[in-house]
Design a protein that fits this description.
Low-confidence stretches: 1-14, 587-593
Number of helices: 23
Mean pLDDT: 93
CATH architecture of the largest domain: 3-Layer(aba) Sandwich
CATH superfamily of the largest domain: Thiamin diphosphate (ThDP)-binding fold, Pyr/PP domains
Number of strands: 24
CATH topology of the largest domain: Rossmann fold
Strand content: 15-25%
Shape: globular
Number of domains: 4
Strand order of the largest sheet: 3-2-4-5-7-6
C-alpha cells in the first residue's frame, strides 16, 4: 500500500469551494484528468455516479460506452490504454458487477497497463452486514491491482482520483481500483477540485534515471561482446523507447528479439530483427539466445514462456537487465549489470555516454555472429503451409497483414494469437494482446477500446472460434455505437492450442476441446446483432473477402474456416531449453556433451544442440 496526501496549496486555482455531491466530484475529476471515454455497465450501487455521468454526457464532456458484460468494460479500458499510453477507465456496480471486472484487472496487472476501475458499493452503514450485492472488492483485488481505495468521505474523492491516475501511469504502470459507497456518491460537500499532477505520495518515488556506474559497466560489456542479443519486452512499449532501441542496436550491430509484449518495439523488417523468442518464437531467435555471450534485457521480466528451462536460458551469456521495477531485476535471472529506471531514459543516457566517450560504431565485431543468425534464418524459416484441400490459418493472417499493414491489431489467446505474433509486422502500440494472463475473450472488447481511442485508424481483432464465444455479446456494443472493429475468426472447430497440447503431450486424448457441436453460425449471429457477417472457406476467395471486410464502413465479423488440425510451430515443450524446439524439419537427434566436428566448416565444438554454433549447419 502507498500512503497518500495532497497539499491543498496545489489544488485547482485556489478557487472558493462550492456545494457538490461526491458523484459530481468524481466525474469532474475524471474530466479534469482528460478522460474522454468510459466503458461500463450501471447497477443499483453506482446509480448516483451514473446520474452525474448523464449530465456530463449531455454537456459533451465525455462519452460512456455501454458494454454488455463488465469484463468487457475492463478489457475495453485496457485496449484504450495500450493503444494510447493513457489511463483507461471502466465502471461497474457492486457485487457481481465488481467481481466481473476481476479478470480484466488481472489481465491489466500482469501486462502493466494503466487503468482506473471505479466500482459502486453498498452504503457505508451497510458495509460488513452482507447486504444485497455487497462484496469486498477492495480485498478481492488486492493481489491484482497496483493500489486500491475505498472512498469513505466524499471530501476525499478529488484527491483519490488524482492519486489513482498518478499511480496508474507512473513507475511500472498498472490498474488502480476506487470503490465508492452509494451514499458517498450522493453526499454533499464543499467541493474543491484537484488538478492533475498535484498528487503527493510520500514513499512513492519510482526510479526513472539510471545510475551512471552500471551504465558505464554495460557499455564496457557492449564493447567487448562478439555475440550480443537484445531481448526487448513490454517495458520498451510502455516507455515509448522504440527509437532508442533502434539506435543502440544499430550502433553496436546487435540483433534484436522481442517478447510477445514487446512486439512493435523494433521493426521486424529491419536486418537486425530476429523476431519473437520463446515458446512459439522463431527458431533463429531461440538459437540466438542459446548461443549469445551477452544478453541485454530491456523492459523484460524473464517469464517462463520466454525462458523455457530457466537454468539453460542464455546460459553462455552475461546479462544486462534494464527495468523500471526493481523487483523484476534479478527475480528470475541474476544479471551481471542491473540498471533500474525508465527504459527510454536509460537508453538515452547510454546513447549520450556513447557520444561523450566517442565510442565508434561497430562494423566488424558482430559480423560473424550476424552471419550465423542469418544461416539459422535460412535453415529454419517460418512456414505458411498450403494444403490442397483446405486453407491454413497462417494464410489468413498473412493476407490480413498484407492488406492492413498499419492497422491496430487485437487478439484473443491461443494458436491464432501466436500465428498473428509470428506473421504480422507491427508498429509501436499496434499489437494489443493479453500476454501474462492469457485471457480468452479479450480480443473484441479490447478492439472496442482501441477503436474509440484511435477512431481514424483501422482496428482488427484476430480471434479463434473458442475465444470469440467468451464475449460474443459485445457485437451488440459494436452495433449500438457503430464501432468499426473488423473481427476475423480463425475457425477450426477446436480450442486449438488445447487440442495441440493434447495431441503432443496427452496421447491424443481430446478431452472437452472440440467446439464443433453447438457452435453458432457466425454470419447469422452477426446479422442478429445488426453487424455485417461474412464467411470464407477457400483461399481463392480470401483476398477479396478481406478487401470487402476492410472496405465496409462499420463493424464486420468474418468467419474464416481453416485447416482443423494445423499446429503452431516452432514449439518449446514445457521444461525444455529454448534450443530444443519441436516442429522443425526432421533431423538427427542432438548430440550430448561431446566434441563434434562440423562437416561444413570443420569447426570442433562441444555442443548440446543439433546445429553447428559456428556456421549453423545441421549436425
Amino acid at each position: 500500500m502507498v500512503s497518500s496526501s495532497i497539499s491543498r496549496k496545489t489544488q485547482a486555482s485556489k478557487s472558493a469551494s462550492r456545494r457538490e455531491t461526491g458523484a459530481y466530484a468524481l466525474i469532474d475529476s475524471l474530466v479534469r484528468h482528460g478522460v474522454k471515454h468510459i466503458f461500463g455497465y450501471p447497477g443499483g450501487a453506482i446509480l448516483p455516479i451514473y446520474d452525474e455521468l448523464y449530465r456530463a454526457e449531455a454537456r459533451g464532456d465525455l462519452q460512456h460506452i455501454l458494454v454488455r458484460h463488465e469484463q468487457a468494460a475492463a478489457h475495453a479500458a485496457d485496449g484504450y490504454a495500450r493503444a494510447t499510453g493513457q489511463v483507461g477507465v471502466c465502471f461497474a456496480t457492486s457485487g457481481p458487477g465488481a467481481t466481473n471486472l476481476v479478470t480484466g484487472l488481472a489481465t491489466a496487472h500482469l501486462d502493466s497497463i494503466p487503468m482506473v476501475a471505479i466500482t459502486g458499493q453498498v452504503t457505508r452503514a451497510a458495509i460488513g452486514t452482507d447486504a444485497f450485492q455487497e462484496i469486498d472488492i477492495y480485498g478481492i483485488t488486492l493481489p491484482i491491482v497496483k493500489h486500491s481505495y475505498v472512498v469513505r468521505d466524499a471530501k476525499d474523492m478529488a484527491r483519490t482520483v488524482a492519486e489513482a491516475f498518478h499511480l496508474a501511469n507512473t513507475g511500472r504502470p498498472g490498474p488502480v481500483l476506487i470503490d465508492v459507497p452509494k451514499d458517498v456518491g450522493i453526499e454533499e460537500i464543499d467541493y474543491i477540485p484537484v488538478e492533475p499532477g498535484s498528487a503527493k505520495l510520500p514513499g512513492y518515488r519510482p526510479t526513472v534515471k539510471g545510475n551512471p556506474r552500471p551504465i558505464n559497466n554495460a557499455l564496457k560489456l557492449l564493447r567487448e561482446t562478439r555475440r550480443p542479443l537484445m531481448y526487448v519486452g513490454g517495458g520498451a512499449i510502455i516507455s515509448n523507447a522504440h527509437e532508442e532501441v533502434k539506435q543502440l542496436a544499430e550502433h553496436f550491430q546487435i540483433p534484436v528479439t522481442t517478447t510477445l509484449m514487446g512486439l512493435g518495439s523494433f521493426d521486424e523488417k529491419h536486418p537486425l530483427s530476429v523476431g519473437m523468442l520463446g515458446m512459439h518464437g522463431t527458431a533463429y531467435a531461440n538459437f540466438a539466445v542459446s548461443e549469445c555471450d551477452l544478453l541485454i534485457a530491456v523492459g523484460a521480466r524473464f517469464d517462463d514462456r520466454v525462458t523455457g528451462k530457466l537454468d539453460e536460458f542464455a546460459s553462455r551469456a552475461k546479462v544486462i537487465h534494464i527495468d523500471i521495477d526493481p523487483a523484476e531485476v534479478g527475480k528470475n535471472r541474476p544479471p551481471e549489470v542491473p540498471i533500474v529506471g525508465d527504459v527510454k531514459t536509460i537508453l538515452r543516457q547510454m546513447l549520450r555516454r556513447i557520444k561523450d566517450l566517442s565510442i565508434p560504431q561497430n562494423t566488424t565485431e558482430t559480423q560473424e555472429w550476424l552471419k550465423r543468425i542469418e544461416r539459422w534464418r535460412q535453415h529454419y524459416p517460418l512456414i505458411v503451409p498450403q494444403r490442397p484441400d483446405s486453407m491454413s490459418p497462417q494464410e489468413v493472417i498473412v493476407e490480413l497483414g498484407r492488406q492492413a499493414p498499419n492497422a491496430y491489431y487485437t487478439t484473443d489467446v491461443g494458436q491464432h494469437q501466436m500465428w498473428a505474433a509470428q506473421f504480422i509486422n507491427y508498429g509501436p502500440r499496434r499489437w494489443i494482446s493479453s500476454s501474462g494472463l492469457g485471457t480468452m475473450g479479450y480480443g473484441v472488447p479490447a478492439a472496442m477500446g482501441v477503436c474509440k481511442a484511435v477512431p481514424d485508424a483501422q482496428t482488427i481483432c484476430i480471434s479463434g472460434d473458442a475465444s470469440f464465444q467468451m464475449n460474443l455479446q459485445e457485437l451488440a456494443t459494436l452495433a449500438q455505437y457503430g464501432i468499426k472493429v473488423k473481427t476475423v475468426v480463425i475457425n477450426n472447430g477446436w480450442q486449438g492450442m488445447v487440442r495441440q497440447w493434447q495431441q503432443t503431450f496427452y496421447e491424443e486424448r481430446y478431452s472437452s476441446s472440440n467446439m464443433g457441436v453447438g457452435s453458432p453460425d457466425l454470419v447469422l449471429l452477426a446479422k442478429a446483432f445488426g453487424v455485417k457477417g461474412m464467411v470464407v472457406r477457400d483461399r481463392s476467395d480470401l483476398k477479396d473477402a478481406i478487401a470487402e471486410m476492410l472496405a465496409h464502413d462499420g463493424p464486420v465479423l468474418l468467419d474464416a474456416h481453416v485447416t482443423k488440425d494445423e499446429n503452431c510451430y516452432p514449439m518449446i515443450a514445457p521444461g525444455k531449453a529454448n534450443s530444443q524446439m519441436i516442429g522443425l524439419p526432421e533431423r538427427p537427434q542432438p548430440k550430448q556433451e561431446a566434441d563434434i566436428t562440423c562437416t561444413a566448416c570443420g569447426a570442433v565444438n562441444t555442443t548440446v544442440h543439433n546445429f553447428c554454433p559456428e556456421c549453423g549447419h545441421k549436425l
